Amino acid sequence: MQTNQPHFIDVAQLQVGMYVHLDLGWMDHPFPLSNFKVKDEDQISIIKKTGLKKLRYDPTRSDCPPLQLTEDKPSEAQPIVENNNDSAKPEAIATQPDTKKVRLKELHHAINECEKKFINTSNIAKQVTRNILTNPKASIEQASLIVNDLVDTALMEGDVAVHALNGNRSSDANYVHPLNVTVLALIMAKSIEMSKEDARLLGLAALFHDIGKAEISDKILLKKEPLTKSEQIHYEQHSEIGARIAQEVGLPVRIGKIIYQHHEHADGSGYPKHLRGEQTDPLARLIALVNGYDNLCNPNNFALAKTPYEALALMYANQRSKYDETLLKRLIKSLGIYPPGSILQLSTGSYATVISVNPNKPLRPFVMLHDPLSDKQEPQILDLREEPSINISACLRPNQLPADVLDYLTPRKRISYFLDADLLKDTN
């Protein structure tokens, strides 16, 4: 019977097929992960050159038992098998961690810069939303600057990553939703090859889609329990109020129309006019889709929040009739079946959270790994595009994680999205 106690072996007992844990910092060895199944003699040779005398191994995940040690040949005397594979040479062992360290530094820098831009943009978006009634001209000018910058990033030639961020780090989580909807809408704009002119209109409509909530009571807007019938009727007025405000502050007529229709559904179940499919503006249909997705991931009551993976699955399985199906499929393709913010278990057994997705390679996201030997402030980040031997085994809910993993990965209660072009630079 196997126990939960760690199993240790002498390094000389190592053989192909054993699942090992290297008790070294991630930068101190050339392997993508610190725990893995040994696949060939070259890997054994590299492990022996690390200087480790003892290894932790997992018998339940190994294909074979350790080799037996002979009493007259202690591990220190065990010869290291030399070969002509450059990856097993001492200089390769020194070089590969250095290369990995440079790449990790680049990833951390790109992510930190993205987070700074997000916080700055979310603060400006907050001021825009707050001041739209009192200073409409300046607010619209600021909103246009935000949207133009996001459009230029989203529609730029080449790949753009969708990055998951901690929405609670922004100045006020209540103002993050319009920015989320804007970012997701513009990712869709890139996916369907929308013109820059339409994308700018879409971006402004997305940023202002909830301005009608300015005249809805906070008691209703922030309520965590289900709304009463009268509260729901009052809440639904925000679409009409928003369209009126858009006209009053001088936003383009089409933006007012989109705001009015952003809660209409393709099957006629939406509001305020129960319009169907082609009866609504195409940009309103797109905003309705990404608005619905973000509301599933970020409800007022966090206990009801869906993981990004669950949200897309629910929308496709149970809510498909509510949305433009072509656009829904595009959203799934753009975010991948493991959208940013998803919690994963990899084929190595490690846990990770998705931090960024390249819409052109959605099944190979960037992930932050659970690695107790890495500094939590500078965690190990893996670009799965560069690790073809590592696959995704499962997508999990936070309550399925061991306590130590949950504490390390700290899954976000509120997920925010931003666009990141730098993360994908100089990578294949």
Q: What is the secondary structure topology, with strand pairs?
A:
Layout: E1 7-10, E2 19-21, E3 35-37, H1 41-49, E4 54-57, H2 90-131, H3 136-154, E5 161-166, H4 176-191, H5 196-207, H6 218-221, H7 229-235, H8 238-249, H9 253-261, H10 282-297, H11 308-318, H12 325-335, E6 343-346, E7 351-357, E8 366-369, E9 381-383, E10 392-396, H13 403-409, E11 415-420
Antiparallel strand pairs: 1-4, 2-3, 2-4, 5-7, 5-11, 6-7, 6-10, 7-8, 8-9
Helix pairs in contact: 2-3, 3-4, 3-5, 4-5, 4-10, 5-9, 8-9, 9-10
3D architecture notes:
The protein has helices at residues 41-49, 90-131, 136-154, 176-191, 196-207, 218-221, 229-235, 238-249, 253-261, 282-297, 308-318, 325-335, 403-409; strands at 7-10, 19-21, 35-37, 54-57, 161-166, 343-346, 351-357, 366-369, 381-383, 392-396, 415-420. A hairpin with an 8-residue loop joins strand 7 and strand 8 (366-369). The chain folds into two domains: 7-66 and 82-88, no CATH class; 98-424, Hypothetical protein af1432. The strands form two sheets. Strands 5, 6, 7, 8, 9, 10 and 11 form a seven-stranded antiparallel beta sheet that branches. Strands 1-4-2-3 form a four-stranded antiparallel beta sheet, with no helix packed on it. Residues 73-95 have low confidence and may be disordered. With 428 residues, it is α+β, with helices and mostly antiparallel strands. The chain contains 13 helices and eleven strands. Helix 5 (196-207) crosses helix 9 and helix 8 packs antiparallel against helix 9 (253-261). Helices cover 41% and strands 11% of the residues. It starts with 6 loop residues before the first strand and ends in an 8-residue tail after the last strand.
